[in-house]
């Protein structure tokens, strides 16, 4: 009867016969909820730790990928510049070949002219020697 009167006033006895403001069932559910919340908070903390390490790993991979990308772009640009240098060098060599061919043609014409002059002079010398 005392329990019923106290229950009507909102006071209850727990399993240790201590006076409580909450019903024993509600107090037990609250304790269970507290334990579940603690476990949930621990799992969330562990999840955040895992996510943090994952984000760090992904950032490292992104930096490595960006570095490799920059190396690839640098290598491609170097290759393009080397190709342009070779093309310019080839054009210079072609111009040099053309110049040397023209010089060879001039020397050939000069040689033929000198041969003709030598032949004329030899003929003149031969005629001069025979006239004496």
From TrEMBL:
<dbReference type="GO" id="GO:0044292">
    <property type="term" value="C:dendrite terminus"/>
</dbReference>
<protein>
    <submittedName>
        <fullName>Intraflagellar transport 20</fullName>
    </submittedName>
</protein>
<dbReference type="GO" id="GO:0032391">
    <property type="term" value="C:photoreceptor connecting cilium"/>
</dbReference>
<dbReference type="GO" id="GO:0008542">
    <property type="term" value="P:visual learning"/>
</dbReference>
<dbReference type="GO" id="GO:0001750">
    <property type="term" value="C:photoreceptor outer segment"/>
</dbReference>
<dbReference type="InterPro" id="IPR028172">
    <property type="entry name" value="FT20"/>
</dbReference>
<dbReference type="GO" id="GO:0005801">
    <property type="term" value="C:cis-Golgi network"/>
</dbReference>
<dbReference type="GO" id="GO:0031514">
    <property type="term" value="C:motile cilium"/>
</dbReference>
<dbReference type="GO" id="GO:0061351">
    <property type="term" value="P:neural precursor cell proliferation"/>
</dbReference>
<dbReference type="GO" id="GO:0045198">
    <property type="term" value="P:establishment of epithelial cell apical/basal polarity"/>
</dbReference>
<dbReference type="GO" id="GO:0042073">
    <property type="term" value="P:intraciliary transport"/>
</dbReference>
<dbReference type="GO" id="GO:0001669">
    <property type="term" value="C:acrosomal vesicle"/>
</dbReference>
<dbReference type="GO" id="GO:0090102">
    <property type="term" value="P:cochlea development"/>
</dbReference>
<dbReference type="GO" id="GO:0032420">
    <property type="term" value="C:stereocilium"/>
</dbReference>
<dbReference type="Pfam" id="PF14931">
    <property type="entry name" value="IFT20"/>
</dbReference>
<dbReference type="GO" id="GO:0055007">
    <property type="term" value="P:cardiac muscle cell differentiation"/>
</dbReference>
<dbReference type="GO" id="GO:0005902">
    <property type="term" value="C:microvillus"/>
</dbReference>
<dbReference type="GO" id="GO:0072659">
    <property type="term" value="P:protein localization to plasma membrane"/>
</dbReference>
<dbReference type="GO" id="GO:1902636">
    <property type="term" value="C:kinociliary basal body"/>
</dbReference>
<dbReference type="GO" id="GO:0034067">
    <property type="term" value="P:protein localization to Golgi apparatus"/>
</dbReference>
<dbReference type="GO" id="GO:0002177">
    <property type="term" value="C:manchette"/>
</dbReference>
<dbReference type="GO" id="GO:0060122">
    <property type="term" value="P:inner ear receptor cell stereocilium organization"/>
</dbReference>
<dbReference type="GO" id="GO:2000583">
    <property type="term" value="P:regulation of platelet-derived growth factor receptor-alpha signaling pathway"/>
</dbReference>
<dbReference type="GO" id="GO:0007224">
    <property type="term" value="P:smoothened signaling pathway"/>
</dbReference>
<dbReference type="GO" id="GO:0002046">
    <property type="term" value="F:opsin binding"/>
</dbReference>
<keyword id="KW-0966">Cell projection</keyword>
<dbReference type="GO" id="GO:0005814">
    <property type="term" value="C:centriole"/>
</dbReference>
<dbReference type="GO" id="GO:0060828">
    <property type="term" value="P:regulation of canonical Wnt signaling pathway"/>
</dbReference>
<dbReference type="GO" id="GO:2000785">
    <property type="term" value="P:regulation of autophagosome assembly"/>
</dbReference>
<dbReference type="GO" id="GO:0007283">
    <property type="term" value="P:spermatogenesis"/>
</dbReference>
<dbReference type="GO" id="GO:0031267">
    <property type="term" value="F:small GTPase binding"/>
</dbReference>
<dbReference type="GO" id="GO:0061512">
    <property type="term" value="P:protein localization to cilium"/>
</dbReference>
<dbReference type="GO" id="GO:0001822">
    <property type="term" value="P:kidney development"/>
</dbReference>
<dbReference type="GO" id="GO:0045724">
    <property type="term" value="P:positive regulation of cilium assembly"/>
</dbReference>
<keyword id="KW-0175">Coiled coil</keyword>
<dbReference type="GO" id="GO:0051642">
    <property type="term" value="P:centrosome localization"/>
</dbReference>
<dbReference type="GO" id="GO:0071806">
    <property type="term" value="P:protein transmembrane transport"/>
</dbReference>
<feature type="coiled-coil region">
    <location>
        <begin position="79"/>
        <end position="110"/>
    </location>
</feature>
<dbReference type="GO" id="GO:0001736">
    <property type="term" value="P:establishment of planar polarity"/>
</dbReference>
<dbReference type="GO" id="GO:0005813">
    <property type="term" value="C:centrosome"/>
</dbReference>
<dbReference type="GO" id="GO:0030992">
    <property type="term" value="C:intraciliary transport particle B"/>
</dbReference>
<dbReference type="GO" id="GO:0035845">
    <property type="term" value="P:photoreceptor cell outer segment organization"/>
</dbReference>
